[in-house]
Amino acid sequence: MKTLYRFFRTTILGGVFFLLPLVLVVMGLNKILHFVAKIVKPLAQALPETVSGFETPYVIAICIVFLVSFLAGLIARTTLGTRLKAWIEESVLQLIPGYTLLKGLGDQAGDSETAKMQTALLGGPGNWSFCFIVERHPNGYLTVFKPSAPSPTSGAVMFVSPEQVKEVDIPVMEVMRCLMRDGGGSVELLRDKLKSGGGSI
């Protein structure tokens, strides 16, 4: 019974974590389309009320949003666009709690060549915790994020020496799921990564 409960809880949490970004994108696009449709409504009055069964203001709004998105994509490929994106990310987005972690998840899920988030174990023999390497300092020190369970988007930022960290080849998403299950599934994730006798690696 407990196993069945854990299965349903894990599946539901995983589904929510997967669907939430999609829902936010859909809601955002819906608001943008409604906003643009109101702006172009006077222009649409000079055109037929519907186009292929859809209200003309919304058809125009969809075309405008796609065009603007395409132009923004072209700008993002330029040097100026890259600098602007970096500035927005550093000055605005990184102030949002959990942004860096979610960005790391997105980069890794998309197999991005620029993905920086690296899973690791923090601590020492007999006392290891999951962590994510966020930045590497010139002097060798590491900025790591130590997530909490069962809410891995919250936790603590730590600055540690490389001797305290052991990098492991485990997808960030898998670690997130493990933490949301209060450590459930860690046996499989850490198979052959922890040696017997004091928890050495």
Word description of this protein:
- With 201 residues, this protein is an alpha+beta fold.
- It has 2 domains: 2-95, no CATH class; 118-189, SH3 type barrels.
- The chain is built from 6 helices and 7 strands; from the N terminus they run H-E-E-H-H-H-E-E-E-E-E-H-H.
- The protein has helices spanning 2-44, 56-76, 79-91, 99-109, 172-180, 186-189, and strands spanning 50-51, 54-55, 118-124, 127-136, 142-147, 155-160, 165-167.
- The protein has a 5-stranded antiparallel sheet with strand order 6-5-4-3-7, covered by helices on one side.
- The longest helix has 43 residues, at 2-44.
- The two termini are 34 Å apart.
- 14% of the residues are buried.
- The model is unreliable at 108-115 (pLDDT under 50).
Shape verdict: elongated
The domain tally reads 2
Strand content: 15-25%
- Could you give the order of strands across the largest sheet? 6-5-4-3-7
Largest sheet: 5 strands, antiparallel
Ends distance = 34 Å
Broad structural category: alpha+beta
